[in-house]
Design the sequence.
């Protein structure tokens, strides 16, 4: 099979799939050598990246997945009209973080770290297929053990778990932030108590948010349509 | 703090149980710039209990976990008061040790959750096949960049400043949470954004402050408003959320595309529905 033919087949397979396809599955399906498939996928990615395409080949959850490109997001959102799965709640994210780093882990272990009931967070994560039951622990009561799924990797756009910061790295980040806060403590002059909002100009605005918001009554900040990619008309 | 009159209608605000006692402790530690390895237990215990008081005042559900933590703090405080053991006696160790370890561990996972949130945001800009508009509209929106504890702090500051001036309150003066919600949405949309502090300070009584606050919480939960804080001691801004519930946040990095008429075709905020309550 010629390289270009394999590439078009891989393109078709990736296009037809809504979840990442692993190298081994692609190789098995095409009957080609995994190395050749990997090369075909790379070529395809380079082709899409060369410009003029609204989609790209991504690598996540140990496989390849065609997704739209980042700048296309506003249009897709408009098409979906806000109907989309919600972001995970803080409770769910915290629970998930514990599971990912400590898997397999039981609910009592999770709750002893979070200090709060985590039943509904676990239900959400199970429903969304981000975690799965990995069996039962040997301790008293034989509680269920939870672990992460391939869908977890796909949901967060991770190739593999090792892409996440290691515990030591997390510690380092936290320590750096602590040191920074301490430095601020000595460097920064505390703001005097303010009588009104005018005195405290928001310094940290979200990147790209409407500049110079005023507390005065005025026209509501319109979603800056002009910032969006130019529309046809 | 004065108690609220009984039988007030529409006052049950149920927030998702997303933050626990450890989170509150971390908030206090950060707010008061406390060294996590040398926590002033008396101070932190007092602040913690003060918080529970505010939460009770607001009728927020104070879960058992908070009470257990309060008990733990008081036990540690008591042990700190015990005389230092004589040399030769058994060394007990720092009674705060276990709590500090728990806080450190929890903080680390909180950080990890933050990393996941960043990843999630990035990944949500990419769409794969099969994301059709009929996808389920799941779950409540997370609260905006300001967390609940920061809001409670702000409320506490306003309450502390507010003099008890309404000595003679007319009976029958009632504040309705629905009315407040409608009013807040209308005002936020007209003004673009509102100062949280001014909003509460212009209230005529503590009861009105609390009703306003609860209305705000409810609107945040419904995703109709967002709150943002410029800096640690800056004011908190209340802003309308332009997009429909379940949609993307107004992150501003990329405005919804569309030509002029499409701009006007932004789905009307669901606010209209409840404005009937405003009269």
Sequence:
């Amino acid at each position: 099979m010629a390289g270009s033919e394999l590439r078009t087949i891989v393109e078709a397979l990736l296009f037809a799939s809504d979840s990442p396809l692993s190298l081994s599955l692609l190789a098995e399906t095409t009957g080609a050598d995994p190395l050749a498939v990997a090369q075909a996928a790379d070529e395809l990615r380079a082709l899409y990246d060369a410009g003029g395409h609204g989609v790209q080949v991504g690598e996540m959850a140990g496989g390849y997945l065609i997704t739209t490109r980042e700048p296309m997001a506003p249009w897709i959102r408009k098409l979906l009209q806000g109907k989309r799965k919600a972001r995970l709640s803080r409770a769910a994210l915290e629970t998930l973080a514990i599971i990912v780093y400590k898997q397999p882990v039981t609910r009592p272990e999770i709750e002893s770290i979070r200090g709060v009931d985590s039943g509904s967070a676990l239900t959400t994560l199970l429903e969304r297929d981000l975690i799965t039951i990995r069996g039962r622990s040997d301790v008293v009561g034989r509680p269920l053990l939870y672990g992460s799924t391939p869908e977890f990797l796909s949901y967060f756009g991770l190739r593999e778990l090792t892409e996440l910061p290691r515990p030591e790295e997390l510690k380092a980040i936290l320590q750096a932030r602590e040191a920074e806060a301490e430095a601020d403590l000595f460097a920064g002059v505390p703001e005097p108590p303010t009588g009104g909002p005018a005195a405290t100009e928001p310094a940290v605005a979200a990147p790209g948010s409407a500049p110079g918001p005023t507390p005065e009554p005025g026209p509501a900040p319109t979603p800056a349509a002009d910032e969006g990619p130019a529309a046809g008309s | 703090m004065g108690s609220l009159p009984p039988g007030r209608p529409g006052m049950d605000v149920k927030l998702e149980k997303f933050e626990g006692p450890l989170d509150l402790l971390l908030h206090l530690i950060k707010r008061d710039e406390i060294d996590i390895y040398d926590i002033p237990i008396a101070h932190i215990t007092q602040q913690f209990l003060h918080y529970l008081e505010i939460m009770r005042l607001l009728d927020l559900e104070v879960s058992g976990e908070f009470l257990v933590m309060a008990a733990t703090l008081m036990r540690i405080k008591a042990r700190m008061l015990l005389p230092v053991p004589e040399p030769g006696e058994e060394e007990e160790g720092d009674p705060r040790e276990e709590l500090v370890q728990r806080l450190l561990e929890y903080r680390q996972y909180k950080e990890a959750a933050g990393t996941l949130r960043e990843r999630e945001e990035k990944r949500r800009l990419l769409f794969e096949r099969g994301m059709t508009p009929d996808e389920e509209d799941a779950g409540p929106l997370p609260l905006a960049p300001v967390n609940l504890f920061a809001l409670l702090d702000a409320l506490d500051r306003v309450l502390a400043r507010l003099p008890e001036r309404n000595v003679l309150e007319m009976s029958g003066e009632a504040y309705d949470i629905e009315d407040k919600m409608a009013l807040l949405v209308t005002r936020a949309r007209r003004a673009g954004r509102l100062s949280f502090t001014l909003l509460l300070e212009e209230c005529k009584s503590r009861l009105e402050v609390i009703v306003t606050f609860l209305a705000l919480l409810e609107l945040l939960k419904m995703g109709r408003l967002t709150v943002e804080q410029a800096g640690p001691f800056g004011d908190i801004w209340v802003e309308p959320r332009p997009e429909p519930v379940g949609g993307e946040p107004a992150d501003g990095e990329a405005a919804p595309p569309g030509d002029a008429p499409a701009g006007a075709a932004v789905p009307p905020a669901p606010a209209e529905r409840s404005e009937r309550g405003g009269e």
In short: Residues 97-123 of chain B form the longest helix (27 residues).
